[in-house]
Design goal:
about 230 residues; mainly alpha; two-stranded antiparallel ribbon; 5 helices; 2 strands
């Protein structure tokens, strides 16, 4: 009986130990999983932060672009429906700022200056003067004038024509030299063959006919020489 009890106790201990080991393993697994989840959450947070930074950068870029556009619009001065370039505006003197009105002006004093009609005439005169000055400034800002451009184009055309003429002359000289060489070759072949009755020509068709005739004469001469050798 005692032995049976001891065996039962051992079995129970072993079961308890196994259960403890299993619990420890499960705890370790849970801890690993939790750590992995925490790491994933941290990565997601970092990604979100990076996205937010990129969005902020894009917003800043858009703001800078808008500022540049506003500056360009401010630079473009319009006087009487005429757009003045920023480079040319520096040459045109700007009008003085208008006088303060109402409470800013000294009370009890009379406003000095020209009347309404005089002001209108002054404004129209100022507009005309500004328009003329703007035109002059635009012309001075241009990198070239029309007559200079036309002269440069004419020079270029003349240079191209001269180049074409030189190339044509070189080609003509080459053709003449080739024809002279052909005539010299023809004379030498006629002298070597000892043939008379042929005339010197530069026509390619006549040249081919003459060369064919010369070949026939040579063949006949060779046949005659062979026949003489056979008879002898």
């Amino acid at each position: 009986m005692t032995k049976c009890l001891a065996k039962k106790k051992k079995k129970k201990r072993k079961k308890r130990q196994r259960k403890k080991k299993q619990r420890k393993k499960e705890k370790r697994k849970k801890g690993k999983k939790e750590k992995e989840k925490e790491k994933e959450k941290e990565k997601e947070k970092e990604k979100e932060k990076e996205k937010e930074k990129e969005k902020k950068k894009e917003k800043e870029k858009r703001k800078e672009v808008k500022k540049r556009r506003r500056r360009r619009r401010r630079r473009n001065v319009f006087i009487g429906g005429i757009r003045l370039k920023p480079g040319c505006v520096q040459q045109i003197p700007r009008a003085a700022p208008p006088r303060e009105r109402g409470a800013a002006a000294a009370p009890g004093r009379r406003r000095w200056g020209p009347s309404g009609r005089a002001r209108a005439s002054l404004a129209s005169g100022l507009k005309q003067e500004l328009f003329h000055r703007h035109k002059e400034a635009q012309q001075s800002c241009r990198p070239h004038n029309l007559p200079l451009l036309r002269a440069a184009q004419q020079r270029e055309m003349e240079a191209v024509e001269q180049r074409i003429r030189e190339e044509q002359r070189m080609m003509d000289e080459k053709i003449v030299l080739e024809l002279d060489q052909k005539v010299i070759d023809q004379q030498s072949t006629l002298e070597k063959a000892g043939v008379s009755g042929f005339y010197i020509t530069t026509n390619p068709q006549e040249l081919t006919l003459q060369m064919n005739l010369l070949e026939l004469i040579r063949k006949l001469q060779q046949k005659e020489a062979q026949a003489e050798k056979a008879y002898s």
